[in-house]
User: What shape does this take?
Amino acid sequence: MTERRSYDAVVVGGGIVGLCCAWRSAQRGASVVVLERDEPPAGATRVAAGMLAPVGELAFGEPELLKMTLAGAERYPDFVAELEAASGVDTGYARHGALHVALDRDEAAELRRVHELQRSLGLGAEWLPPRRCRELEPGLTPSFNGGVHAPDEAAIDPRRVTGALLAALAESGVEVRSGVEVEEALIDGGRIEGVRTAAGEELRASAVVLSSGAWSGAAEWLPPEARPPVRPVKGQILELRSPDGEAPCERILASERVYLVPRPDGRLIVGATTEERGFDATVTAGGVHELLREAYRLLPDVAEMELVEAMAGLRPGTPDNLPLIGRGALDGLILACGHYRNGILLAPLTAEAITALLSANPVPGPLAAAQPLSSRFGTHMRPKGRSQPGVVA
Amino acid sequence: MRIELNGASCEVGDGATLADAARAAGVAAGARGVAIALDGEVVSRAEWGATPLPEGAKVEVLAAIQGGSEGWELGGRAWTSRLIAGTGGFRSLEQMELALEASGAEIVTVALRRIDPDAKGSVLDVLDRLGLFALPNTAGCYTARDAVRTAHLAREAFETDWIKLEVIGDDRTLFPDAVELLDAAETLVGEGFTVLPYTNDDPILARRLEEAGCAAVMPLGSPIGSGAGIRNPANIAIIAERAAVPVVLDAGIGTASDAALAMELGCDAVMAASSIFGAADPTAMATALRLGVEAGHAAHDAGRIPRRTHAEASTPEQGTPDLS
Assistant: This one.
């Protein structure tokens, strides 16, 4: 006999985005269930460094993304305060700033170029000569050419945020079901009305939220035309631990090829490679070597640290690097995916957008450009003569 | 089943598509500047394979003339564009697609080590959609053995025996290791590969690679990704003058004038990657490089005036008719 249950929303995917969406929706009185194939924190959330760094992540030609990441960073302190109050869990949020260092003349030229872009956009970032950099971070390598200090950048521990979200969800009476795989969408006349799990259980819902990270584009339980254009982009990352429980730097440190994120408990995250290798999530000797070599060039103290873990995760990439947040290609399907490098940063804003969508309100301002409209992809990024599958025409 | 191909009757198999008609008309896979009309309607390249031919279909295969520049040959195949593009370092897939389209490139390199050819919705899908030839390279290899093994993997994965051979000496300069490079080139040529080696701006090594049977030589202008232009133009000119195989300037291009200079020095084509994807506006830089290559090629063929020390009035006074 098939068991049937009915919800306002079924959230498919228990990474930070799915959990945030569920929590915010439940706060608005919606009945929600989260289905996670694995165990939260799932997918990229489990391995993410948790940088909240719109200035350092800035790239040429991505003004829409900058608007989103700035809004996301601004939102974070309130989100953290509310979540910590609701859960009683410390999220490890630290607004300690970031220092991007140029290790030689070539890197200095490139860093100055990006710094000019940062300044032209009015972002908080200051060029510092080496001596000033080492006043901030005495552990830095003695020989380098200067750096850019971005004092407003922050970081958070994604695993702790997940713990806090799970506690807050439990408090709100939301079920988070681990080890549950979705097998089929229940579709009636172009409308998704729920999902069937691999165990044969049917979960009916007014809306199905797709927050399956890098797997969103390969969600075989959705018809092909409803799968959004999301691909996995592999990243390898390391966790080091200081013998004395004190991290070897106070703020995020970065060079052209590596970033280091200190945690309050003395751990140090070293990231990350970027590889187009499909769903391969192998940790390679070359990847680890490169990360350690570059970390050592930047901050020689890392040599003394314990290598706790080497991990690989899959970022959910989209063709234009912007997330996909909005109504999907089936009635009742809502997309909350494709956050690429910014899932931790944009999760709180995404959750607000999803609660708006669940109440049939429009996606709020900062994320308006994240709506999965096919016009967004122009005449490119789609099979010729056809519209891009997975988005609204 | 019979169709009409360019005005002549032609027999094709049942279930044949426009792609089969293109082959029957002698269009090489990946060749650009070709348009096909089915019963008077132009069909885009991406649809050729999915467009069935009805009995008696009228198919016109037209080779477009692009900017008046004649083609060139590499590895026994004809190409129109003289700009080869890389695919590493793009900021987004969309940006990569726009820039590659603007570059006009027909051949693009892909690093086997960094790109899984089976990954859906990724780099290879974009190249397929644009109809580009994906040329695998051995980037990241430091020994001949490693490069040969990577070439074997690339042949399996990309179903091509073309390989852009890179054997790197150290990771600070990324200069080629001449000894390992020649060793790997000889092995791969012996195994039937079409070998396109990234080499130093050394005319003797270039000649040795050519003698080993490489299909081209690809001398560097300056270190990979440096954007430092062509540091030894005289050597590039010597290589281009003496080579019997195509010479492709590889590495060091920073901007359009570098690409133009390479062509003026007698290169057959130019390879660019970092200069495109590192630019603030990659699409605009791709366009600029395409035009730079065309300009330099035209200038090379035009026969420039010699450099003089002193002025020479462009309108000589002697012998000028007095029209007043």
Summary: Chain B touches chain A through 29 residues (CB under 8 Å).
